Please model this.
Amino acid sequence: MTVRASKLTRQRVRAAWVFLAPMLIVLALVAGWPLLSTFSYSFTDKTLTADSETRFVGVSNYVFYGPNLNDWDDELDGYFIVYEPDDALLVYRPDTDTFYDLDTDQPYADNVDRSQIFEWQGLLVDGLWWKSVWNTTAFAVISVALELILGMAVALILNANMPGRSVMRAAVLIPWAIPTIVSAQMWGWMLNDQYGVINEVFLGLGFIEDRLAYTANPLLALPSVIAVDVWKTTPFMSLLILAALQLLPGECYEAARVDGVHPIKVFVKITLPLIRPALMVAVIFRSLDALRIFDLIYVLTSNTRDTMSMSVYARQQLVDFQNVGYGSAASTTLFLIITSFTVVYIALGRVNFGGER
Amino acid sequence: MADVTLRNIHKSFGELEIIKGVDLDVTDNEFVVFVGPSGCGKSTLLRLIAGLEDITAGDLSIDGQVVNDLPPAQRGIAMVFQSYALYPHMTVQENMAFGLKLAKESRQSIDQKVGDAARILQLEELLKRKPKELSGGQRQRVAIGRAIVRNPKVFLFDEPLSNLDAALRVQMRIEIARLHEDLNATMIYVTHDQIEAMTLADKIVVLNAGVVEQVGSPLELYHHPHNLFVAGFIGSPKMNFMTTSVTGVSGDSATVSLPGGAAITVPVQGGRLKAGDDVTLGIRPEHMMEGGGGDAQMPGSVFVVERLGGETYLYVRGGTDDLITLQAGGDSTAKSGDTVSIGIAASTCHLFDADGIAVSRIERHPLADVGRGKGPGSRAETPAEAG
Model:
């Protein structure tokens, strides 16, 4: 027998739904709908061309074995193929899996060597995509690691009792407060190979003998982008860590002093375990940001292969090449990668967003 | 176990002087309680002994060695903090073993010490728990256990019971007293609770505004307070004070007038007083008698009645600035507005001169110099009353 909820309980549940509804509706509109649209576009050959017809193409945007997708011709209702061994013009229609002669529209008599025509295509076999995945991963891992270490150091310094501490805290935040587009452009000029101040300083100090093109040199582009990101985002990391440090119980440290624990041991055995929950949350915030990095890379290095991130790749497909379907497939894959990273991270790290210890 | 000696200890934070020259001898195996109102410097004094604060001036020795410049860990002390200061991410066992492990003690010796401490404190069942899974009293026992395993020369307690509820506080108070007997250790204990001070201490140090007002056994402070501050601070409800003047003196008494016209002759060493001096007469509420009696009476009208069951407190208006508090029997029928006659026995009166210093009583209270009766260390020192 089920117990009917009391009138008061039902009233509370109803009130909760009333309060939640606006947020749920807005979320569905601004997050749910675009996400679902992108997901569904990724199974079509939609483009930005106004008069083109959109077809459902299954998973072809992700992976496809067949003739070159760009050779599809709506009028022929098949792929236009130049078959080089016979020097013949053919049409391949997937629904019947047959080759036709372009002129007669009859099935082509000779045996066609499919390996000459068919190839693996799609996002998952695109070298540039995997290059961008690799770039993004390298960027995320290195920049978040550096930000964590530097942010921790800054936070520990700011946490110490010293004069002018509040001014220091505000000053440290400035790089984070500047809009990325502004700071990226600023760094772009500073890193410029002709008139950039960085080259001047390094030349003056004797670190380098010739001016370097930091954002154009394939070896230096990614490290440069990482350096700028570390400059920009370390304050955020140190602020989150500082907040955690401020909550630590002071008496524990006095107990450790009475116990005669070495300061390094205190840091490793007491401070680190106690701020671990906050560190985990800080790292996941930063990692999610880093995995979808776009503005900094796009402003500093545009569409260069050497620094192309997943977001830059998706934008190029969507906007520059106007391949909405293919670009959506890239976006969807990016979303899936980030989601699975998050799930694995939370599960393995037992991240506690509640802040309990 | 060891003596602790403080010689002219000063502590300033910038311009602000918190401890203004403290001299104190804590003998081996003694239980000394620092008591005083908030801000009197009692916790600071304890932290100076612990080494958590630097001493500005003066010498502190533990076991004969000057330890001013030694870090806490090398002073042979262990400290129990008000909010326990347990490491939240470690189990009870790890909390107690942490210091020993880092001191590179052998596994066997650590297990031995932690096991012993756990047995003394009845923590054996809880060794695998984290602090957040323990009650307040259990946490404080773990904190004490962490102190015990260090096998210190001196235990320092900083208001260890003030975060516990009243019932638990009584229980832990008894446990700490038992622990002191079991361990035969020198203990220094800070509290603002005078019941803890009276029940635990061999020797109480009353601090006020950074100076020691009086050092003595609990009953010495109660029966022979050195000055107005100690008289008002020890005892609850606090002692009644009446400003009055001397009408006559002899070698072993002083006669003062009472509100309402009567006079009382108090057995004190009146030699240093003379007729006409302003003095303060102090009488504890429990020594005032409802309905007259004693050597003199003063009239008053009852303002408020507080019934506690076992006793009744009458707050009486009787020609003084403050209300006079009178402790009557639990079956007192007095009610607000009644006129009462307050009886006073001369032997229970305290007399303080114009500077607030006590005029010594002729008879020393028989219990004033008796410690808690546990051996040589528990005897209080020779009284140092002015007079």
Summary: The longest helix of chain A spans residues 7-41.
